[in-house]
Specification:
With 97 residues, this protein is of the alpha+beta class. The chain is built from 3 helices and 5 strands; from the N terminus they run H-E-H-E-E-H-E-E. The strands form 2 sheets. A 3-stranded antiparallel β-sheet has the order 1-3-2. Strands 4-5 form a two-stranded antiparallel ribbon.
Length: 97
């Protein structure tokens, strides 16, 4: 049986806080190619500090464009599972292997 650790409101609060961190604080990206790429797509980049500030709208647009299908591989390849719709089991992010 699966239990829900976070409710929808808590998940949304974490998401909003994450967007704020990416935009205000930014992330260090020690790779010139990635720094150039994210600058080209709209992030604010300090090349000297290797610091990227990602606007919330860029994160949201990027999330809307990514594939909604992925595979989770377990240590035992027989326990790998393919997931659709960006959810681990179709029930708001809960899963088990």
């Amino acid at each position: 049986m699966l239990s829900r650790v976070l409710d929808h409101e808590q998940i949304e609060r974490i998401h909003q806080a994450s967007l704020e961190i990416l935009q205000r604080t930014g992330v260090v990206v020690p790779h010139k190619g990635v720094l150039s790429y994210v600058a080209d797509v709209g992030a604010q980049v300090d090349m000297e500090k290797q610091l990227v500030h990602i606007p919330s709208d860029l994160v949201i647009r990027s999330l809307e464009q990514i594939g909604k299908k992925f595979t989770i591989y377990g240590r035992d390849i027989l326990k790998s599972t393919e997931k659709l719709d960006g959810r681990l089991d179709g029930k708001d992010g809960r899963f088990s292997l």
